[in-house]
């Protein structure tokens, strides 16, 4: 297939690489030219100077950028992709964005004769590199059926959740759940160390029971070591939580714990942890601790 990929960040870079390695004819675009040159040196593919140039002959277009504003820029801005997408093509957006922009881009693509799927992902940089992402998709069944085999190249679990915007809404549920789990894990580990327990020994025991979670398995060891300079950044999490909280207010679905944890992430940002992994909630607790108990 002729494929375009827009956005070569920590997620998009390996995702586009998987498509190229699978034998697809891939053209990439990224605002930062150094990323493009690095990608081209590692994989087979072409480079475009604008989103419009990247998509002009593509059967499938994939995007993974930062937020609503970035997504609107690469689709509807000057030399944006939507000005050049050919009829019958499928645009798959992997950005974690709002449901509103997903619905807007779905309508605009339909009027121009091509399809749009909102398809945010979960699994982080490691999942993107290993090709084991979870992908939550919103849009039409026919477009999904056409794009699913290509997403399968880097996705382990892929599901159509409903119409336009449903992928983004599902990602919001994902982030709401993660926020509570990470805060609970941070509190548990902080408590364990405060009362004199061996944190890793505690994790080894409770991870075999009902307390087990992906966060515990993947992040407890680095949390206990105070290592946070990797993974899903706090800035990104706050962006995602802002979308979830705003949507929750629109539909009158209370998310008090999510709102509280969002303020905790604001504290982490104030500590200089904007790019720390989301598990850095433990660093906040350690910074606030004034005495030991036992």
Overview of the structural elements:
- This protein is α/β, with parallel strands linked by helices.
- The chain folds into 2 domains: 2-162, NAD(P)-binding Rossmann-like Domain (Rossmann fold), CATH 3.40.50.720; 169-288, N-(1-d-carboxylethyl)-l-norvaline Dehydrogenase, domain 2.
- Helices cover 53% and strands 14% of the residues.
- It has helices at residues 12-21, 33-42, 51-55, 68-76, 99-112, 124-130, 141-151, 166-194, 199-206, 214-225, 234-250, 256-270, 281-288, and strands spanning 2-6, 25-29, 46-47, 60-63, 90-93, 115-118, 121-122, 133-138, 155-162.
- Strands 3-2-1-4-5-6 form a 6-stranded parallel sheet.
- Strand 5 (90-93), helix 5 and strand 6 (115-118) form a beta-alpha-beta unit.
- Helix 8 crosses helix 11.
- The longest helix is centred in the middle third of the chain and has 29 residues, at 166-194.
- The protein is globular.
What is the CA–CA distance across the termini? 62 Å
Return the CATH topology of the largest domain: Rossmann fold
Shape: globular
CATH homologous group name of the largest domain: NAD(P)-binding Rossmann-like Domain
| SS element count, helices | 13
Order of helices and strands: EHEHEHEHEHEEHEHEHHHHHH
β-strand amount: 5-15%
Class derived from helix and strand content:
alpha/beta
Q: Overall pLDDT, averaged?
A: 96
Low confidence ranges = none
Please indicate the count of domains. Answer: 2
């Amino acid at each position: 297939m002729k494929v375009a990929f827009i956005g070569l960040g920590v997620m998009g870079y390996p995702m586009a690489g998987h498509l190229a390695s699978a034998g697809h004819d891939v053209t990439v675009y990224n605002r930062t030219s150094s990323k493009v040159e690095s990608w081209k040196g590692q994989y087979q593919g072409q480079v475009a100077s604008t989103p419009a140039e990247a998509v002009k002959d593509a059967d499938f277009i994939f995007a993974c950028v930062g937020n609503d504003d970035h997504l609107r820029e690469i689709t509807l801005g000057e030399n944006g992709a939507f000005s050049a997408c050919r009829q019958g093509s499928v645009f798959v957006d992997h950005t974690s964005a709002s449901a509103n922009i997903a619905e807007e881009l779905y309508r605009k693509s339909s009027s121009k004769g091509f399809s749009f799927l909102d398809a945010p992902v979960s699994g982080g940089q490691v999942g993107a590199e290993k090709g084991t992402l979870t992908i939550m998709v919103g849009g039409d069944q026919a477009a999904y059926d056409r794009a699913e085999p290509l997403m399968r190249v880097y996705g382990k679990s892929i599901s159509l959740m409903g119409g336009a915007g449903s992928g983004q809404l599902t990602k919001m549920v994902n982030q709401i759940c993660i926020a509570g789990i990470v805060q609970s894990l941070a509190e548990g580990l902080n408590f364990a160390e405060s009362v004199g327990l061996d944190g890793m020994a505690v994790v080894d025991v409770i991870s075999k029971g009902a307390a087990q979670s992906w966060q515990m398995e993947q992040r407890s060891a680095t949390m206990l070591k105070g290592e946070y300079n990797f993974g899903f950044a706090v800035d990104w999490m706050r962006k995602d939580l802002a979308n979830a909280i705003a949507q929750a207010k629109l539909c009158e679905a209370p998310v008090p714990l999510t709102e509280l944890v969002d303020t905790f992430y604001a504290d982490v940002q104030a500590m200089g942890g904007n790019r720390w992994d989301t598990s850095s909630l433990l660093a906040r607790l350690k910074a606030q601790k004034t005495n030991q108990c036992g």
